[in-house]
Amino acid sequence: MTTGSRFVIAGGGLAAAKLAEALRANDFEGTVTLVSAEERLPYERPPLSKECLLGKKTPEDCTVDPAQWYRDHHIEVLLGTTVTALDRTTKTIALPDGTTLPYDKLALATGSRPRRLPIPGADAAGVYTLRTAEDSLALLEMFGTARRLVVIGAGWIGLEVTAAARAAGLEVTVLETLAVPLQTALGPQIGAVFADLHREHGVDLRLETKVAEITTADGRATGVRLADDTVIEADAVLVAVGARPNIDLAVDAGLATDEGVLVDESLATSDPDIVAVGDIADQQHPLLGRRIRVEHWANALNQPAVAAATMLDKPAVYDRLPYFFTDQYDLGMEYTGYVGANQDARVVVRGDLGKREFVAFWLDSGNRVVAGMNVNVWDVTDRIKELILSGEAVDPDRLADTGTPL
In sequence order, what are the residues at sequence separation of 6 or more whose Cβ sits closer than 8 angstroms to the Cβ of residue 41? Predict the structure, then answer.
């Protein structure tokens, strides 16, 4: 790429910042413009539902690079600016003020947004979601005034906010449609560990429930009515029912999409001059032999180095295994690998579920490890990766035996 080349990054999260870093680290001397819908410089999101709600960090602490870094590296940053359209023929993006920005190479790092519930009261005051720093600050402020919180959804965000709310002294009721928390991600056996964890910390966890409406008075949430007409009174409601990838821009531009933007092993889209990273990237994974799209911090952190190389016409492949983590009360967890939604996998537990000190492994039909999760057991992630990457069958009994080295 020549000095006069123009690279544009559409998005303002961790992936966008790391992509800008990677381009300059690869000695790209052309122009780099980062277009962010948020008014803040790119920051990391995991602390928003953890340390920030516990008062241990502020959103400013989560900033990836300070403003001076962007100035020093000649990165133009357009904050509070949403890309409204993408024209692949003219190779331009449109901005809200009607202007266009040309590009030679474009990176889509548009992230995701919280899913909304199509029920009465969902837009009332006192109904919260969590995605941005402002969302986290609003929740933290609510912790200081509210007494009762209803959380709709027992996924990662819902449970992390619940743990923080309990630490702040709120009464919390969690509503979940499935039989256990995190059932889709972890299955019934491991999901039950999280059910016990939250109940032991005083959470009113109600499973296999359906929400009919968020009740209101004078335009403000007062609680939740269930399908059986049970009413749970509350001062605030958090809706944490998952996220939707922001792929409208790609869809309207005619890029190949499914549940995300389809990318190859190098993170290139169906247009060779456009890459996609982070939450929206539906990648053909070279090691897993299938398409995967995961909304995890590790992808936003690590994919940009590969995407930058691809933008610079250098060979690169993204082959890292999916990884994520959570912290809830005194439970710390890391998860490595991937189990498809319809994949029949057997769970083997090594350690003590009751004490919440264990490693869980997911095995396919050939007894090959496809994922592993360590709970309050540390320094085993590399061993888990080795077991997955070996592709070899294991003896489930030996795997479960803590006396047998991994």
Answer: 12, 17, 63, 64, 65, 66, 67, 70, 77, 79
